[in-house]
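Field: sequence (string)
Field: structure_tokens (string)

Example rows 1 and 2, in order.
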Amino acid sequence: MACGAMVSRGGAVLLGCTTSADGYYRGRPVRVVTHAHRDHLLGIERSVRESVIIVANPYTLEMMEVLGYRVPPEKAAPLPYRASLEYDGERITLVEARHIAGSSQVLLETSQGSYGYTSDFKMPGTPPLKGLDVLVIDATYGDPALQRRWGEWDAIAALIEIIERFIREGPVWVYGYHGKLQEVMAQLRVRGVGYHFLADPITLRLAEIASRFYNVPLDPVGMFQGEEVYDSIVIFLHSTRFSSYRRRPGVHVRLTGWEMRAPAALAGNRVINVSFSDHATLREIVEYLDDARPRLVLVDAYRGRSAMLTARYLERTLGLKVLPSPPHGF
């Protein structure tokens, strides 16, 4: 393919002539991992075998190791935020993105143009990549019907209220995905929630990394291995554990960005959904692009559900040229 920017049909974000981000693409010597979520680690094993270097924020590389994705030291290129490296005349810079610990945006500068990729992000806390030739943007919640009427802080406040209300009746179980759980643990500590935390082994190891990233101590915190637990404990488990533990005594809270009824809503007997998302709402996407003003916007249609609808909305709202990529993904 010609050098530039696009999203491949396999989910790789191609930037310049050398770089593939968040997906494997044959012949690309540089693989960037923006963060340690499975849909952004597509084909990482093949990339490790075939690429020259694997670029990621140091915290992301640590989290990948915990999740079982090993990058040999001779291929790992830990790149802190705002630091750069050059490969074959192309300059790669990772810029902070507010999503999970270690999340990065990618900026690629070449003699032929400048290209960027937001990866997953939310606002505030993600500085826009400004004035690029092409910007690939995440739009997981790009459908106007998915615009929540409340903010993240409302969801956190709802979670704190649930904990305070039910903690003395039994444990409060909190389920979510990697990264989101660790962010919420830090948010609760910052807001003065001091109850003892427990977490399954992988969630706990990731929490220790996230604690350093956020510079927020999580103590008192310990490992949960399935034992009986009583009151005044908050237990954090991966979402896949919900069906195994939902019948245990206590209140069970699921962290999900797909809850659109309210910041917190009843979802079953002693099951509550809390509408906590790590993705930008459509309003936040507009805010980002209104500041960034690239010449061309490509909406990631591999990961977004309504890329064409999002593209048309952004064109009408901002007067930018916006296309879904790949074009079939809508």
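Row 2 begins here:
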Amino acid sequence: MKEPTRIAVIGAGHGGKAMAAHLALMGREVTLYNRSFDHVRIIEERGGIDLESYEGGPHGFARIQKVTSDMKVALEDAEMIMVVVPSSAHADIAKLCAPHLKDGQIIVLHPGRTCGCIEFDNVLRKNGCTAHYILAETETFIYASRTDGPAQARIFRIKEAVPLAALPAIHNKTVLTAIRSVFPQFIDGVDTLHTGLNNMGAIFHPAITILNAGRIESTHGDFEYYIDGVTPSIARVLEVLDRERVTVAASLGIRARNAMEWLALAYNVSGNDLHEAIHNQSGYYGIKAPATMNHRYIFEDVPMSLVPISELGKRYGVSTSAIDSIVRLGCIIHRTDYRRSGRTIDKLGIQGLSVSELTAYVREGWRED
């Protein structure tokens, strides 16, 4: 496949702006889409985004070719579509994309969280999409980034290796070849069960946020999220959550990376335990905690990451008592039922599938309608 030059970035939060700017600085023709045009109006008026970065990282004024809130306009010329929105919005974005996708377009979810591609594919199919697209997801977001203003973005760190997998996995090589010129950091993620169950945000984000609830509400997030927020006791909770995730993966025949292995892969850091390894990650320094508990670390990561891991555990006979505890606390704090709104087995359309049938679907593309 030829190298894509026209790329649509769907979502103009801190991650979408960072990716759009970085791609533009690498010479790509970038279209930036956001559902609310007011959110991107200044980017259109200025003609681009100011990108700041760590020493030696990408920086400068990045010219954006088109800025729109019309999905048809966003997708009409795109060869590759980068979906950079909270995973809680994946289903809505898939519905908007369904009438406008064209044969041969590559869609990449940044990241998929857990079962992101499965959900996105299911929604596209249910909404009558007949295009022969290629769908893929990343295991985690490639940047540690924040926004500094309406037309500004900042990259704290670019991860050194990020697994990526297509659905089905027979398209992995096609996607990796197409994306390699701009993001050589992406590596073969085996399949989307591997990327989904190696989702470290599921382990780090909700638990750290919930266990620091008092501090977040009393200081409005005025502390360093990973450095101050991960104490030895909280790190021990993370280790138990992590063991449950790895065990669920094992029930599906997957050898998932544990948190220590993930930190070594993504950031090339290590330590004697998880607490030490997190504090050895220089990219985490300077990242502030959420200013409020109404944050995607709960409303995204609980229903779209922890719930499907728990659901897979129940389906295939694995206890996830610690994960279930964090889900329950998230429901209490937000006064909602994330079990109902999250990615359940039924919503994903994989109810009743055996391990071998689910594996065939993610690797070869077979699916029972």
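free_text_note (row 2): The domain at 201-361 is CATH 1.10.1040.10 (N-(1-d-carboxylethyl)-l-norvaline Dehydrogenase; domain 2).
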